[in-house]
Design brief:
245 residues, Rossmann fold, Dienelactn_hydro, Dienelactone hydrolase family protein, hydrolase activity, hydrolase, alpha/beta, 8 strands
Length: 245
């Protein structure tokens, strides 16, 4: 059985984005949540987490930005996908103070979902390579519940990149304003995960108590999938309920 059985295949187009159209997979009812997969892509673990969000009363959309569908797990698949995304102009991998261009498409997807489903807004959740994209999506008022799971871009090579939020100065200003107005940001990581760098400290410095930190003990990485801990999943679902229901 395909792990995506029961998920409706669609697509979303934003003409101003570097790549205007990407496929999407959708399931559920209730307020919208955009779940952006980590490297290597939409794996069975990513789908299993997304199913938990559906079960909690949400409409989940999984954008297909890279990798196979469904993607195999493991180091080999991760290396193959990473080799492709490293030359993809949609993603800012190394530069500091810049928003990844794919944010334009993701914000448009969130606006479309909110316009269709209504409510206070939609959730946006990114993982690892895409973790910071949820923060970039928060620049749009349609996003009311941004969740950053082990955000890892730009790659944490050197102090500046390790602390960088993958946002332009203008986008960071909007994040600050929205946080000051009451939009909280949830961050989940393993406390000793080197891929996250010092971004959690940067977020606390930039938006203070609006940044809600969930830090698990250890040096593992994928908090909601391969190295899943129920306490992290439960906290994410609680945050989405509080902000969207």
């Amino acid at each position: 059985m395909d792990v995506l059985d029961g998920w409706a295949l669609g697509q979303h187009t934003e003409p101003t984005a570097p790549v205007p159209t990407h496929p999407t997979y959708r399931k559920g009812t209730g307020p919208g949540v955009v779940v952006v997969a980590e490297i290597p892509g939409i794996t069975s673990e990513v789908v299993a987490f997304a199913e938990e969000v559906v079960g909690a009363g949400f409409t989940v959309v999984l954008p297909h930005l890279f990798g196979e569908v469904p993607s195999p797990s493991g180091a080999g698949a991760a290396v193959r996908t990473l080799a492709k995304v490293c030359v993809n102009r949609e993603f800012n991998k190394l530069r500091v103070g810049e928003t990844s261009p794919v944010a334009t498409w993701l914000r448009s997807l969130a606006r479309s979902l909110h316009a269709e489903l209504g409510g206070p807004g939609v959730g946006a959740l990114g993982m690892c390579f895409t973790g910071g994209f949820a923060l970039a999506m928060m620049v749009d008022d349609a996003v009311a519940a941004p969740v950053l799971a082990q955000p890892s871009l730009p790659f944490a090579i050197g102090r500046a990149r390790a602390a960088d939020l993958n946002l332009s100065p203008a986008d960071l200003d909007v994040v600050r304003r929205r946080a000051a107005a009451g939009c909280q940001v949830l961050g989940v990581r393993y406390a000793d995960d080197p891929a996250v760098g010092t971004r959690f400290e940067t977020l606390t410095s930039e938006i203070g108590d609006a940044f809600v930190r969930v830090e698990l003990r250890g040096r593992k990485h994928s908090t909601l999938t391969a190295h899943r801990q129920q306490v992290a999943v439960d906290r994410v679902l609680e945050f989405l309920r509080d902000r969207l229901l």
